[in-house]
Amino acid sequence: MSFGRCRRPLVLTLDAFGTLFHPRQPIGQQYADTARTHGLSGFTHQDVEASFRKGEERRIVLELRFGETGRYTLTFGEKPSSMRDRSIRTMGRPWVIRSTFYALSPSSAPIPEGLVASLLHRFSSNEGYRMYDDVTPFFEQLREWRKDSSAARPGPPEIEIGIISNSDNRVPSILASLGISTSLRRYGSGIVESRDHSDIGWVLMSYDVGIEKPDRGIFDAARALSPSSTASEKLCLHIGDSIKEDYRGALEAGWDAVLLDRDGKHEGAVPEADRVTNLATLTHRLMHSK
Fold it and tell me: In Å, what is the CA distance from 71 to each residue of 57, 75, 77, 166, 210?
């Protein structure tokens, strides 16, 4: 992307999982260790991981954003209304947890409700996730940038930060537990604009909008959710770790995009100007654009 274009108001959006935070240990290990504290046994971490993946795949097929054919059940702007949509939404994570351990249980004994509650809490907070090392410095730089409107801090006259995530409603609580403040503004919340000076001005999750990246619709929904300026004046820039979902999805929606490639495994896959290996590098380039 051309960083010189950043003199316009900037809408900066970020992916969440794999971009801002990641599991503390493999999911199967955390599930298995937690289950053992509730009296379950007779399985390995690998057994639990495989069972979890099967349950998660079934949930995704049945989740609000998909129908039985794998096509989206909602178009941008629609709301879930049927009893089936509401029951699928309610099923969610508790169903996956029970499904994971039912498949490993040698008997029909019920899954302890305390296990379900423990895992729901763990994977909605910093018990289950940790931030990447460059995220805290990244947000510290953004906070300083937003406070400093002097000529000594060149960059866009206005910056707005949002999240676009193929996820459910855990993202805000995970971010908050990791020390990243998040506004209550999200798709369908009815909040027109937040002025609480949170690190994240709004959150857009596929769980709410019924569309996933790389579909253009989720980026269109994000542009509509953004309260700053008019659509024609905004420079919309999305950052994420997936070439398909984040980088190409944003470009095909008419946005600018930067691929976050911490491990350097995508070198040469995108123009070098569109790739960073550290979020702080991106902040420096944006803040010092001419």
Answer: 15, 10, 16, 15, 11
